[in-house]
């Protein structure tokens, strides 16, 4: 269901999902840019992308897709791999940063929910639940090793230059391939596996 339908049917649920989703995406992109900056590439910083301002991160087409179809994207943070101190290591670490940020946010939400239990307000409990679930789904989705998702960039850091070139060439068609595979349900088992893996790790760390 797209967010537009949700807004029309249940405005409260829309707020409880849209706001956590917005900031899950923002922190994901911010993490990429911040780690790239720490590793020698100031591109994101110079373009004003190291900010929590949603207007700096929202992609018009991706936002419309999200509202109508329930699948969308933000503007990717620009990273110049050639300016990183170590290109191969940088590719892995910068690409992992967004996923790790979402996992940490999910852990924090679940930890806070447990800390406040058994008497958090129902609205706060729902907000924490949605925030955790959205971050887990976002991290799991980005682990898929298909361009332009982060999983493909992590994979590129471990493979030969020739395979890297193949993946880079595939990137221009990546979103169409991903949307097609999502429509066919091919990626659902992969996403569910990554969700289970992330949630299992979080549960190990929760007191």
Features:
207 residues; mainly alpha; 0% strand
What's a quick, concise take on this entry?
This protein is mainly alpha-helical and 207 residues long. 71% of the residues lie in helices and 0% in strands.
| Average pLDDT taken over every residue | 89
Low-confidence stretches: none
Question: What is the approximate shape?
Answer: globular
* SSE class: mainly alpha
Number of strand elements = 0
Helical proportion, percent range: over 70%
| Assembly of the depicted chains | single chain
Cα-atom Rg, whole angstroms? 17 Å
Number of domains: 1
Task: Please give the alpha-carbon distance between the first and last residues.
Answer: 35 Å
Strand fraction band?
under 5%
What does this protein look like?
The chain has 207 residues and is mostly helical. The chain has one domain (3-205). The chain has helices at 3-9, 11-38, 43-46, 60-69, 87-116, 122-142, 150-156, 161-170, 174-184, 188-205. Helix 2 (11-38) packs across helix 6. The radius of gyration is 17 Å and the shape is globular. The protein starts with a helix and ends with a helix. The mean pLDDT is 89.
């Amino acid at each position: 269901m797209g967010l537009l339908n949700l807004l029309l049917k249940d405005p409260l649920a829309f707020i409880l999902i849209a706001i956590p989703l917005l900031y899950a995406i923002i922190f994901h992109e911010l993490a990429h840019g911040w780690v790239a900056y720490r590793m020698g590439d100031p591109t994101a910083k110079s373009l004003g992308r190291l900010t929590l301002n949603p207007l700096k991160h929202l992609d018009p087409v991706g936002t419309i897709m999200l509202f109508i179809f329930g699948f969308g994207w933000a503007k990717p943070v620009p990273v110049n791999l050639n300016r990183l101190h170590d290109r191969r290591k940088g590719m892995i670490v910068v690409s992992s940063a967004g996923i790790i940020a979402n996992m940490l946010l999910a852990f924090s939400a679940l930890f806070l929910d447990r800390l406040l239990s058994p008497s958090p307000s129902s609205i706060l409990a729902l907000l924490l639940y949605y925030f955790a679930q959205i971050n887990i789904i976002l991290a799991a989705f980005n682990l898929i090793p298909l361009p332009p998702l982060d999983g493909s960039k992590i994979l590129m850091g471990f493979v030969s230059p020739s395979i890297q070139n193949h993946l880079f060439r595939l990137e221009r068609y990546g979103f169409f391939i991903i949307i097609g595979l999502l429509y066919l349900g091919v990626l659902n088992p992969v996403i569910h596996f990554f969700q289970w893996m992330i949630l299992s790790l979080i549960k190990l760390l929760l007191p």
